[in-house]
Specification:
Order of helices and strands: HHHH
Number of helices: 4
Structural class: mainly alpha
Number of strands: 0
């Protein structure tokens, strides 16, 4: 294979972090960059993933849902229509009754 050298400028901490990740995956950074370049040429697409950490609100909501499941505070429906009917009945129970305007 005829090899060329590509020099790029990148943040030192980013390079070190990328080398650690590559090493943890059993690769060297050069192999991963070559694989990325080959995929770029083959697919003519750029793919990246920015894995996000869920917000504290979402984490709290998930904990609450797990607790509800654990305690059996759940509803189950045999159909979407049954779920819709139940929701409508709940809304009607909560909705304040209107007084006749005169």
């Amino acid at each position: 294979m005829d090899a060329s050298v590509i020099n790029i400028r990148t943040d030192t901490q980013l390079k070190l972090a990328a080398q650690r990740v590559a090493d943890n995956l059993g690769f060297n950074l050069s192999s991963l960059i070559n694989a990325y370049l080959k995929n770029l040429v083959k697919t003519k697409t750029v793919y990246y993933s920015d894995v996000e950490e869920p917000s504290e609100y979402l984490k709290s909501a998930l904990r609450e849902a797990e607790e509800d499941l654990r305690l059996g505070r759940t509803y189950s429906f045999k159909s979407a229509d049954a779920a819709s009917d139940w929701l409508k009945s709940e809304i009607l129970e909560v909705k304040p009754k209107k007084k006749n305007a005169r």
